[in-house]
Write a sequence for this structure.
């Protein structure tokens, strides 16, 4: 009988629940729809809850507690090696018990431990990078005496069947700053098309939507500053925040919903999606806004510029520029027809390149269908 079990492995801080964590259930749903048996292995409490709610089997993974090994802490690297031995043993026991055909590893410590454990058991290993390589995992990896963990990860990378990066920009960064790898391929992020389900929802063109953690790096401070100024001239303007804690923000006209299990019903009612992040790989929330045909205001950063062209299918502003953000929001409110056209073009871009069902069928399905290769 063909083995269709796949373990999706994503280990982060227990309180972490962002786009890379949401991706696990999105990928799991597509795998399940194609006859696979996905099991989600994670340390994220939010992901454990979300996955159970959606009917997935879950396994709570252990977590390497010490994560900062920079500077003088590099002298304590032998302690990390001991932690890795324990983690590798745990994964080997898990794999012997579960007997998966494929594992998809998507986090730093597990790129080492889970890959080493799977190597001797004949299990196919896939890696997915959610821009972690560029952001911090492989920084200074080519510098002598720095980032020993990154160097270990690169050594283990040779044992991965395929390393999937989420955009051409990520692949280019890797090749320019690390090395070229024959087993690396671009598999763009995507979302399943649910446009038809929400296209008849009444839209409030004066309502803005933000989806993400309410942290500085997401540009939340600039967003609140900009919206407060917009609210002074446009009394009917509204801003809804999906993420963080419920009612965490106390600003007139702003509704903080906290963590929302399904943001699409909220997004459907809003005219504009705003994402003023300092750094993104390829935001699932942004892709969902494109899928829904929303007007988009976001920052001109890597990953985003691969999706949005300024004044064509969205508006790009500089990072940390509250004034530019305010002007963009006012432009959208004062130019509804032009804004709607940008939303239509964003939807078209999504249809052409970012429908996850199509991406999976064309790019990912062959990686999981190991029986058909025999």
């Amino acid at each position: 009988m063909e083995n269709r079990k796949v373990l999706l492995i994503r280990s982060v801080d227990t309180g972490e629940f962002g786009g890379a964590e949401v991706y696990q259930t999105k990928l799991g749903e597509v795998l399940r729809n194609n006859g696979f048996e996905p099991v989600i292995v994670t340390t994220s409490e939010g992901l454990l809850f979300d996955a159970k709610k959606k009917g997935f089997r879950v396994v709570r993974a252990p977590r390497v507690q010490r994560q900062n090994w920079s500077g003088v802490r590099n002298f304590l690297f032998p302690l990390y090696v001991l932690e890795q031995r324990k983690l590798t043993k745990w994964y080997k026991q898990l794999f012997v018990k579960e007997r998966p055909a494929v594992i998809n590893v998507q986090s730093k410590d597990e790129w080492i431990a889970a890959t080493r454990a799977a190597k001797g058991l004949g299990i196919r290993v896939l890696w997915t990078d959610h821009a972690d390589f560029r952001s911090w995992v492989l920084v200074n990896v080519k510098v002598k005496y720095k980032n020993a963990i990154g160097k270990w990860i690169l050594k283990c990378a040779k044992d991965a069947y395929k390393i999937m990066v989420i955009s051409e920009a990520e692949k280019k960064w890797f090749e320019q700053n690390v090395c070229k790898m024959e087993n690396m391929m671009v598999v763009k992020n995507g979302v399943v098309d649910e446009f038809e389900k929400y296209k008849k929802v009444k839209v409030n063109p004066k309502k803005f939507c933000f989806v993400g953690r309410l942290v500085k790096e997401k540009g939340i401070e600039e967003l609140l500053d900009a919206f407060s100024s917009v609210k002074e001239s446009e009394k009917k303007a509204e801003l809804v925040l999906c993420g963080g804690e419920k009612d965490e923000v106390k600003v007139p006209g702003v509704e903080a919903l906290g963590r929302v299990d399904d943001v699409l019903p909220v997004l459907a009612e809003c005219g504009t999606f705003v994402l003023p992040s300092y750094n993104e790989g390829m935001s699932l929330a942004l892709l969902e806004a494109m899928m829904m045909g929303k007007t988009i205001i976001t920052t001109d950063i890597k990953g985003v510029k691969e999706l949005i062209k300024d004044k064509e299918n969205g508006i790009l502003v500089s990072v940390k520029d509250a004034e530019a953000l305010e002007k963009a929001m006012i432009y959208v409110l004062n130019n509804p027809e032009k804004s709607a056209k940008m939303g239509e073009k964003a939807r078209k871009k999504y249809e052409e390149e970012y429908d996850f069902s199509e991406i999976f069928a064309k790019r990912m399905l062959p990686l999981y269908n190991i029986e058909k290769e025999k």
Remarks:
- Residues 195-353 form a domain with the Rossmann fold fold (CATH 3.40.50.2000).
